[in-house]
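Changelog excerpt

This revision adds worked examples to the README so contributors can see how folded entries look when concatenated. The first example is reproduced verbatim below.
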Amino acid sequence: MEKIFLSIDIGTTGCKAILFNKEGQLLKKTYREYQSIYLSARWIDHDPSTWLQAAQKTVMEIISTGEYPQEQLAAISITSQRATFISVDKNGQALENAILWQDKRAITESNEIIEKFGQDDIYDRTGLRVDPYFTLPKLIWLKKNKPEIYQKTYCFLMVQDFIIYHLTGKFATDWTQASRTMFFNIENFSWDETIIEKFDIDYHKIPPALKPGTIVGKTNKLAKKHFGLIEGIPVIVAGGDQQCAAVGLGVVEEGLIEVNTGSGSFVLANSSRFVKDKKKRILCSASAIPGSWVLEAGIFTTGGIYRWFRNNFGKEELKIEQQTGQDAYQILDLEAEKEPPGANGLLLIPHFAASAAPYWNPEARGVLFGLTLSHSKASVARAILEGISFEVQKNILLIEKNTAEINEVRISGGASNSNIFNQIQADIYGKEVVKTICNEASSLGAAILASVAVNTYPDLNFAVKKMVKIDQESRKKPNINNTKKYQELFELHNAIYYHLNKGGIYKKLNEITDVFS
């Protein structure tokens, strides 16, 4: 009986349960969406029960048909979004809504961390810069503003850890998730006691951090009751979704880089050493390859902007989709293809939920610059796709400067289904971009880690060669003439941000907006 692997991926907007065989072929997939709780423009909560329910429903759908008997399951591997944390009691029950990674409520706490500890020291120890994106500022905010929840908390868990507990009864996280908390020492892969003590975080409330790809435990009676799973299946802590995506895309050696664009974009390259960017623009986190690192840049809103545009200005396209089944994004793409490179002088700055790398500005806002009466909806659609790619390019250049020359860009995420977007990426990056056969990179990466954990394959590199397949037909080569034009627009794109920020315009706008919200 052929052994197969079940990956559970708890993303920001939905949960996937996917079965893979040992060749990396996707056998079956189920999906459930959920909604976060938007308390304000900067405050975003999430009810943890929706993650658990979605995981339960997707797993039950997978196994209920009996198409793939549970006896075939060699392992269950869990991956998830990062920097989101949950306060739970000793029975793994959530005490409060989780604070989502996109949440920006802890700006004051971030400033306090800089004053007490220093931006440089935090970066040197953790590979992260101080920002409300990460766990520590949010945890300090919780302790300050909801002390009763903090005191009642038995353990602070990441999203994948929460699901793992409900499968195994074990509290644990892994290096990749821990490295996004801002109190994990990235050089020796252990909790940083100096930071923890400095900010008076209770050490006993922090779960043990294991190597990614570790077997945490096996499915227990509760897993049988709530997920319908038989007992005794090994459960693997795969790690953060982006580190797993790098593995699922085969980005495990120098010269390759991942660009994963969904609601946001993540740009990752693996490194055999801990790299520090002098200006702290890019981050260094634990890789899903134990003992290695990833250089990483995150952009909060990219594909999410295209969704926003479709939902608010693509009513006609959505109506056609409803009537004919043709995807509304494809219709917008066809319109964008009619526009010339540069969208007739229209530039989009994609900071719709502040800026992460390379600027790290929680005050930043989105900008659509250069509008004239000659522009159309198609112009805006193309400007969005180009604006996303310009922002990604800024980070590719930084990562390349700190590692080695990038020869190929491996792309994934929902936005990589767009033919025009992929060509724009190739033209702006000036590099070939290519997809893999399996577009579920995070889930495949989790399955690859599981295959090594249960000794299906001897090591990760061997497993990647067996399970990752390149889609050669998807390969896009840059148009040199377009690349030259985009280089000039790229400089303008940078200048727009710098002038707005230098003039204090973002900060002033947020101050005015906060008064009326």
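The second example, added in the same revision:
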Amino acid sequence: MKQIYRFCQILIIAIIAAPPCLANSGARIANEADGREWLSYGRTYSEQRFSPLNEINEQSVKDLGLAWSLPLEGERQLVSTPLIVDGVLYFTGSYSLVWAVDARTKKILWKYDPDTIGKAGETLRVLWGTSRGVAYWENKVFVGTGDGRLIAIDAKTGQELWSKQTVDPRQPYYITGAPRAFNGKILIGNGGAEFGAVRGYVTAYDAETGEEVWRWWTVPGNPLDGFENDAMKAAAETWNGEWWKHGGGGTVWNAMTYDPEFNVVYLGTGNGSPWNQRIRSPGGGDNLYLCSVVALDADTGEYKWHYQTTPGETWDFNSAMDIVLADLEQRDKTFKVILHAPKNGFFYIINRENGELLSAEKFAKVTWASKVDLKTGRPVEIVGARYEDGEETVWPGPLGAHNWQPMSYNPGTGLVYIPFTDMPGYYNDKKILPAEFDHSGFEFEVGVAGIQDDIPANIATSGLMGWNPVTQQAEWKSPNPGMWQGGTMTTAGNLVFQGRADGILVAHRADNGEELWRFDAGLGITAPPVTFELDGKQHVAVLVGWGGGVAALGGSMGAQHGWEYGKHPRHLLVFTLDGKAAPPAMPPPSFATPLIAPEFNLDKKQLIHGGEIFEKNCTWCHGGGAVSAGGAPDLRASPIVLDTNAMSTIVLEGALLSRGMPKFSNLERKDVEALQHFIRNKARLSIEAESAMVQ
């Protein structure tokens, strides 16, 4: 017995000490002690985004400097977590383009273009073009594309090995999340619940062949078609009406965590389709498994347990935020837990052996519920929060108290670092008639009033907090500009790194939040930083390319930083101690200037119709109130809007398809004319407001 034990010790030591290429991918991803690489979205299977490296620490970080940078030509929105495998950085750019960069030579090894724009078809109408990253397994890189494919790429050559269409291309499914790799399988989910009758699911594929291994649906379908399993049959008891005609939602567009200790996959499921439960499930019900953490057997996809954070959700309070694994003391006992901070504003600690809720407390401003009852595990809702009288303002809103930007957990400090936001949401369904609700697809339809007006710059506050999950309190908070910030990374050097909307990359002291170092990247940072060791030296890397939801639909809330569309180049930045490279030359912040066009005669009826068209088709990329936050051109400043023929060629015929501007087959020339009136009205209102401020 002693010999067997000693052999296991030697084997573990050998795996830790061995060159990375000698250990299989699963062992490498599971290895918390080896910080040389960053092999999975959250670095390891725990998704803690914690690195044991400490060469860069609270004392030495003052000497951190730029080692090198790489311009990423043609890129727009960069939100990806780079992986570092055998000295190569792998990351995604816009429209699921995959980059491989040699960290020693600083050269691009290859680029793989899945031609998302060319293959997306109608799905292009609902894409921002963002992608949060890739997965790695046994010399292969895996990417989910915006149009719903999962593709395996040779890590050395960049050649496509296999491709699988994971969604029905006739429906508005898309993929923005990073796949996960475990046990020879690749797991991928999807999004799209705002744009049609979408029913959520995840699928596991064989990493070698691309063949489907298992699929698990997150919400039940039409009972007349039968149920895929007992979990779906049980879930159907919690729905009312003909929910399946609206899809149901529950998409798994971000959070997927593999737990090697229990051989379980945890899913963070999304909001309802549509958001408004009055339409989706008249009469209420918990609507399982929306807004839940769901545990599945990793080999078979069989349901094991769930915990629902927002029963009967009706606010877009999805639980697609990261699911972090840790060992934590609760109730005078150490538990293996899940740490979870979803949109709804509560921080959850869940026993990952059985799904038992151990603790839940508010980490941001929350007015929809007073608390979570630990006896029942259910939130105690505030009367009226469900906009029963037709309208209500609640905190948080649809963008959440914490969105997809990853939090991180440092076992040394015991703190969780959460990018948090305090922002209200206004919900109004007074003009919504459930019987007439149209969810046919590819238009933004959520069952409450959409966004036609600008989103004010000062509507929200944000920051980074060091949250103590044992006491369920913030140990420290550091305010950030705006509300759309980057994800986090923490290290054994008592540091936590985060990029900000104003383009500043910051290193905070992890135990108390003190700012120790900053670097001006010259452009808003949304992507999370990573760290790795190369030739005995610790590096920090981050992608600089303002992107994501608020960079698209955010209006003045996102535009306030001056990252005007097409004005600022995108980069990969890599830092080391005593780095001496010069920062990339970047133009200063700039702001779109609405065109003055007095010859354009506005028609009130036309602009009202144009507002309805804009809300459902254009806000997603061009911003609330036609104020671009940088993700697409500002239409108030575009001369094309003054020319009906030119605008029709673009909108109806797809003249700018190659740039990612979709063709809108659902619109007609009269709709284009109405859009002109709406946009010109917004331009004039902006000019008048600015003139009044000057006076």
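Reviewer comment on example two: The chain has a mean pLDDT of 95. The CA atoms of residues 72 and 571 lie 5 Å apart.
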